[in-house]
C-alpha cells in the first residue's frame, strides 16, 4: 500500500508533534484520519478542527474497520494494542519517519538535522520561503509562529522537514539539501557511543544525491569531518554574514540563521529576500516563547533539555536582559540522558540565579532509581548554584512565586510539561 493511495489512516501517538503534522496533512487532503494518544493537548485540539477523530487511550478497537494504513510514533512499544491489531489484520504500518519519507519522496526536500537548533533552523527556512511567496510545504517539530501550526500545506516544489536522528529516523528521508546544524552527545541511550552517533550522521549525508547539497559550518571540526564523508556539493554556512538584527536572541540563533541563509541561497532566494525572511522570523512554540508578565516579572518558556542547549539559552537571555536575575524551573528529560550527561548538566546552570528542579520526565523510559532530580539539586548546590527540588508542577510554581522579584526573568526549561509551571505562576493570585 502506497500512502498516497490510502483513504483511511489511523495514527498511534497522534498527539506527537511529528505524527500530528502528517495527520493534519492527510486530513486536509480529504483522507479520513483518526488517532489515539494518552491525553488531550493543544495539538489534538488543532487536529479536531480538521475533522480528525481522537481517541484517548490505546485500544485495538480504535483502529477503523476500513483502515488502509497505520502511522505510529517510535515512542510507543511493539506491545501497543493498536499496532498489534494492525499487524493481525495485515494493515500496513509505517513509523512517522517512514511515512515522512514516503510523502516527501518525489519532492525537492530540504531536511534539517542536528543535535540542537534543527526546529528553529527548519522554521527559519520555511518562514523565509513563505515570505518569498515560494509556497513551501513544511513539517516542523513545533508550532511555527505566524501560522501557529506544525504543518504548512504548500503547492510549491519545496518540502521543508525536520529530520530527527533518534533511532536513525532521518535515514528514511532522502533530501536534495541537507542542513546539519551540529553533532553533540545526545540520544546515547540508543547510539551508546559518540562514534556510533557520528556514523549515523555519515549514513544520513551519504543519502544526499551527488547533485545535492550538504550545508554545515566547516569551522566546526566535527562537521568538517562529516563533510569529508559526503559525496555531494558542500556549502560552508560559516561564510554567511548576518549583518541584520534577528527577532530571536542568542549567538546560537545567529548560527542557525547562517545555516538557513546558506540553504535559502541554494534554492535561489536573493540576499534581500533572505534578510526579510530571517529578520521577520519570530520563533516557534516552546523556543524562547514569551508567556506573559506578572508584577514586573517576565515569564518565558524554552524546550532546552540538553546541557548545551541550557547553557546557550541562559547565555542568550543574560545577553538580552543585562543585569536581570534569571529564575529557572527545570524538568530533566529521560533518566538515561540525565545519568549520562549528569556532570554537564551540573555545569550548565551557572547563568541562573536560582533553579527549581522537578522530577525526571520519564517519557518513553522505565523508572531508574539510580538517578534522581534530588541528586542533581545536591550537585548544583555543591557547585554554588541556588537549587531546590519541587515534587510537582504546582509546588514548582509556588517556589517560583516566593523566589521571583520585580524585574526578574522566569524561565521554564525542559522537553516535558514544565511549561505548565509558567502558566500556573501567571494564574496565581497576587497577594495584597
Question: Descriptors for this entry?
Answer:
single chain, 432 residues, alpha/beta, Rossmann fold, UDP-N-acetylmuramoyl-L-alanine:D-glutamate ligase, Protein-Tyrosine Phosphatase, Chain A, 3 domains, seven-stranded mixed sheet, six-stranded mixed sheet, globular
The mean pLDDT is: 92
The total number of structural domains is: 3
- Terminal CA distance: 64 Å
What does the radius of gyration come to? 22 Å
Shape: globular
Largest sheet: 7 strands, mixed
Assembly state (oligomeric): single chain
Q: Name the poorly predicted regions.
A: none
Please characterize this protein's 3D structure:
By secondary structure, the chain is α/β, with parallel strands linked by helices. The chain has three domains: 3-100, Rossmann fold (3-Layer(aba) Sandwich), CATH 3.40.50.720; 104-279, UDP-N-acetylmuramoyl-L-alanine:D-glutamate ligase, CATH 3.40.1190.10; 289-427, Mur ligase, C-terminal domain (Protein-Tyrosine Phosphatase, Chain A). It is 36% helix and 20% strand. The chain has 16 helices and 18 strands. The protein has helices spanning 17-28, 42-48, 81-89, 96-103, 118-131, 188-191, 194-206, 221-227, 251-266, 271-279, 307-320, 335-340, 342-348, 373-383, 393-403, 419-427; strands at residues 8-12, 32-37, 53-56, 69-72, 93-95, 108-113, 137-144, 149-152, 158-162, 177-180, 213-216, 233-236, 289-294, 297-302, 326-330, 354-357, 387-389, 409-413. The radius of gyration is 22 Å and the shape is globular.
Amino acid at each position: 500500500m502506497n500512502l498516497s493511495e490510502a483513504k483511511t489512516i489511523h495514527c498511534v501517538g497522534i498527539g506527537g508533534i511529528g505524527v500530528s503534522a502528517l495527520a493534519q496533512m492527510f486530513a486536509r487532503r480529504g483522507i479520513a484520519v483518526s488517532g489515539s494518544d494518552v491525553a488531550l493537548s493543544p495539538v489534538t485540539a488543532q487536529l479536531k478542527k480538521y475533522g480528525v477523530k481522537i481517541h484517548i487511550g490505546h485500544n485495538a478497537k480504535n483502529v477503523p474497520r476500513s483502515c488502509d494504513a497505520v502511522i505510529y510514533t517510535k515512542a510507543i512499544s511493539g506491545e501497543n494494542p493498536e499496532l498489534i491489531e494492525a499487524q493481525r489484520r495485515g494493515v500496513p504500518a509505517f513509523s512517522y519517519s517512514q511515512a515522512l519519507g514516503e510523502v516527501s519522496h518525489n519532492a525537492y526536500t530540504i531536511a534539517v538535522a542536528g543535535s540542537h537548533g534543527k526546529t528553529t533552523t527548519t522554521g527559519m527556512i520555511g518562514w523565509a520561503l513563505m515570505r518569498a511567496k515560494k509556497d513551501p510545504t513544511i513539517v516542523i517539530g513545533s508550532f511555527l509562529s505566524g501560522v501557529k501550526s506544525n504543518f504548512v500545506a504548500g503547492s510549491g516544489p519545496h518540502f521543508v522537514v525536520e529530520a530527527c536522528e533518534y533511532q536513525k529516523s532521518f535515514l528514511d528521508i532522502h533530501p536534495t539539501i541537507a542542513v546539519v546544524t551540529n553533532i553533540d552527545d545526545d540520544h546515547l541511550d540508543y547510539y551508546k557511543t559518540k562514534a556510533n552517533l557520528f556514523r549515523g550522521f555519515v549514513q544520513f549525508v551519504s543519502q544526499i544525491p551527488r547533485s545535492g547539497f550538504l550545508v554545515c559550518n566547516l569551522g566546526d571540526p566535527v562537521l568538517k569531518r562529516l563533510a569529508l564523508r559526503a559525496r555531494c556539493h558542500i556549502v560552508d554556512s560559516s561564510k554567511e554574514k548576518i549583518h541584520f538584527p534577528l527577532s530571536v536572541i542568542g549567538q546560537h540563533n545567529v548560527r542557525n540563521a547562517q545555516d538557513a541563509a546558506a540553504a535559502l541561497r541554494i534554492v535561489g532566494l536573493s540576499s534581500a529576500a533572505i534578510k526579510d525572511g530571517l529578520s521577520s522570523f519570530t520563533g516557534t512554540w516552546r523556543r524562547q516563547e514569551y508567556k506573559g508578565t506578572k508584577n514586573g516579572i517576565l515569564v518565558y518558556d524554552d524546550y532546552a533539555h540538553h546541557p548545551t542547549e541550557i547553557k546557550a539559552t541562559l547565555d542568550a537571555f543574560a545577553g538580552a536582559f543585562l543585569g536581570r536575575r534569571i529564575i529557572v524551573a527545570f524538568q530533566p528529560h529521560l533518566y538515561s540522558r540525565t545519568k549520562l550527561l549528569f556532570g554537564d548538566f551540573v555545569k550548565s546552570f551557572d547563568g541562573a540565579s536560582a533553579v527549581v528542579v522537578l522530577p525526571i520526565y520519564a517519557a518513553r523510559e522505565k523508572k531508574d532509581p539510580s538517578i534522581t532530580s534530588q541528586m542533581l539539586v545536591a550537585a548544583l548546590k555543591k557547585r554554588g548554584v541556588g537549587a531546590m527540588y519541587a515534587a510537582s508542577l504546582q509546588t514548582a510554581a509556588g517556589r517560583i512565586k516566593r523566589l521571583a522579584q520585580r524585574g526578574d526573568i522566569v524561565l521554564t526549561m525542559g522537553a516535558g510539561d514544565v511549561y505548565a509551571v509558567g502558566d500556573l505562576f501567571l494564574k496565581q493570585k497576587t497577594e495584597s
